[in-house]
């Protein structure tokens, strides 16, 4: 089997976990390049891990990879997608919230034969939501509760002068649509963007966001009502080195990569 080349954009907590797994080996895949903001820091880490991977410029990505995995801040998504999709390549997007205001990227993928892949990430149940969407979904509601440090600094909180410091009890800091949440919390609730893309869209998917000082995990609950099923799903994710992101996010990327060439695929 010939190997497909995979590039990683961003070597933070998630990017490093994915890079380590690719270096150890995933069937049909090879780590071929990395795009980073701090080349010296990335080169030192790669050397320490004994990972042989060139650091390249963003515009050079299509020359080095068939698939690019975006593990970077949301503002990078558009450039990564445009670069790869115009070349008819694939992009795995973790900052799913950045896709909601950019439907033209989906059109770009269609026009050039490229593909955008959004992994399950920190939220379970996307298979069930996607299946229900083949029928009629009446409502999708999500409740996210995080330790305050997992929300601190979000643009919505800053703009509305909402403080989550020193809380003694849970505080609801946002209620609205997935589109509004993705704009106001670009690094915190990519899960609701993925949920919206799998189901009834960002304007009909609603979310409540809570800062809860009693929590040590990022907790998500989704409630779906459709003509085929009514279900509620909950998950408690252990934060990674980055408190805004759960450890399971990187594992979700690895699981999605493993499925690309697996002899058996479980789940849609």
Architecture of the largest domain in CATH? Answer: 3-Layer(aba) Sandwich
How large is the share of residues in beta strands? 15-25%
* Assigned CATH superfamily of the largest domain: NAD(P)-binding Rossmann-like Domain
Instruction: Identify the strand order in the major beta sheet.
Output: 2-1-3-4-5
Radius of gyration: 18 Å
Contiguous helical run count: 10
What is the domain total for the residues? 2
Order of helical and strand elements:
EHEHHEHEHEHEHEHHEEEH
Largest sheet: 5 strands, parallel
State the end-to-end distance.
24 Å
Helix content: 25-40%
Write the layout of secondary structure elements.
Elements (H helix, E strand, L loop, with lengths): L3 E6 L3 H12 L4 E7 L3 H10 L12 H4 L2 E4 L6 H10 L3 E4 L9 H10 L2 E3 L8 H8 L3 E10 L8 H5 L11 E7 H7 L5 H9 L6 E7 L6 E9 L3 E8 L9 H14 L8
Task: Write structural notes for this entry.
The chain folds into 2 domains: 4-122 and 248-260, Rossmann fold; 126-244, 2-Layer Sandwich (Dihydrodipicolinate Reductase, domain 2), CATH 3.30.360. Helix 1 runs parallel beside helix 10 (247-260), helix 4 packs parallel to helix 5 (103-112) and helix 8 (178-184) runs antiparallel to helix 9 (190-198). A 5-stranded parallel sheet has the order 2-1-3-4-5, sandwiched between helices. It has a 5-stranded mixed sheet with strand order 7-8-6-9-10. The protein has helices at 13-24, 39-48, 61-64, 77-86, 103-112, 126-133, 155-159, 178-184, 190-198, 247-260; strands at residues 4-9, 29-35, 67-70, 90-93, 115-117, 137-146, 171-177, 205-211, 218-226, 230-237. The longest helix has 14 residues, at 247-260. It is globular. Helix 4 links the parallel strand 3 (67-70) and strand 4. Helix content is 33%, strand content 24%. The mean pLDDT is 94. It is built from 10 helices and 10 strands. It is an alpha/beta fold.
């Amino acid at each position: 089997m010939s190997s497909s080349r995979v590039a990683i954009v961003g070597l933070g907590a998630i990017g490093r976990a994915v890079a380590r797994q690719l270096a150890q080996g995933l069937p049909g895949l090879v780590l071929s390049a990395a795009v980073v903001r701090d080349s010296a820091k990335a080169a030192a880490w790669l050397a320490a891990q004994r990972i042989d991977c060139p650091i390249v410029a963003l515009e050079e990505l299509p020359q080095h990879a068939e698939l690019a995995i975006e593990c970077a801040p949301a503002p990078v998504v558009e450039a990564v997608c445009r670069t790869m999709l115009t070349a008819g390549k694939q992009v795995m997007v973790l900052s799913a919230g950045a896709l909601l205001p950019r439907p033209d990227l989906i059109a770009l993928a269609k026009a050039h034969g490229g593909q955008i892949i959004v992994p399950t990430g920190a939220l379970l149940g996307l298979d069930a939501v996607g299946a229900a969407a083949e029928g009629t979904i009446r409502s999708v509601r999500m409740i996210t509760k995080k330790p305050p440090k997992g929300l601190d600094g979000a643009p919505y909180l800053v703009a509305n002068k909402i403080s989550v410091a020193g809380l003694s009890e849970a505080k609801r800091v946002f209620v609205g649509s997935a589109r509004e949440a993705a704009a106001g919390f670009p690094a915190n609730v990519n899960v609701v963007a993925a949920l919206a893309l799998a189901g009834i869209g960002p304007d009909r998917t609603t979310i409540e966001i809570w800062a809860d000082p009693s929590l040590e995990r990022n907790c998500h609950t989704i409630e779906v009502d459709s003509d085929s099923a009514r279900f509620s799903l909950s998950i408690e994710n252990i934060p990674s080195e980055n408190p805004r992101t759960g450890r399971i996010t990187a594992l979700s990327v690895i699981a999605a990569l493993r499925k690309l060439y697996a002899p058996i695929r479980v789940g849609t």
